[in-house]
Design a protein that fits this description.
This is Probable dual-specificity RNA methyltransferase RlmN. By secondary structure, the protein is α/β, with parallel strands linked by helices. Helix content is about 35%, strand content about 20%.
Length: about 375
Amino acid sequence: MPAELTFAAPRRAKPPRHLADLSPQERKDAVTELGEKPFRAKQLAQHYFGRLESDTSGMTDLPADARERLGEALLPKLLTPVKHISCDGGMTRKTLWKAFDGVMFESVLMRYPERATLCVSSQAGCGMNCPFCATGQQGLTRNLSTGEIVDQVVACARDLERGNVSGGPGRISNIVFMGMGEPLANYKRVLEAVRRITDPVPGGLGISQRGVTVSTVGLVPAIDRLIAERMQVRLAISLHAPDDELRDELVPVNTRWKVDEVLDAAWRYADTTGRRVSIEYALIRDINDQAWRADLLGRLLKGHLAHVNLIPLNPTPGSKWTASRPEDEREFVRRLEAHGVPVTVRDTRGQEIDGACGQLAAQN
């Protein structure tokens, strides 16, 4: 495998153990080791997942002399918000997080009239090396722990529920693993995070699996592992080019698994789960937005359980990559629709707050 396609994260100190890293049985074992009754694990989980509370000092159903000990052992502070920046009338909020070891990563909360979607990171940086992506140009620092992934959700859900985000109190309905990192390169922790996000309270946050989307550039063996999980999460394929010649350049992992192999894995996922696959396609001016590429993409997808999500590129400062012309975008849409392929153009949110994943972390 070429060096730039190595998926392993550099060895670093591990984040502290957190309640969200543990299964319900492991939580019972952990509190028992601390000299407490096993049912204390369920109480802690009820506070964290059900009430979105991380501070044990106010958990009055726990013995006063055990609160600090349980908090230090199972609810350590994982993430510190460095800054929140908002746009779209406050309906979009990006948060820059700092972990215990100083690494930084981002999440983005987007409010819509009918839903609230949180885009979470699964890695600090990314090892996929896609040249148009701000995160890809940073390289991979490390994988995030299950707790660090879940804590992004809990912290943002708490702010939303308590009215600390524009638009008044609300609830997160959708989670997308489309922040920093390649989720399926951190497979075990991401899958554990999905279970914590979707298991009913107090096992987890109780968000529907159907409201969770896991994105990948096309790690075929990991897609097949995800198929075997028999979950109902949506799979999103970051395709960005329908032909191997261009995709080799835009998504270097394509030199390992070609377009046909990636799409075949996507169709296996759709056939097994019955869920429509989202095909993510960042439109880049004069690079991948030609009408003939729209036709090629349409032929590849026609007749399959798929939906194309066209993404006007959110350019990074100084980059040669920029968004397509409006007329080219319209023609791309028209060509796909002519092939009978459902297509939408993603809402261009967050441009004035360095909306492209990785930009804020890179600046800091």
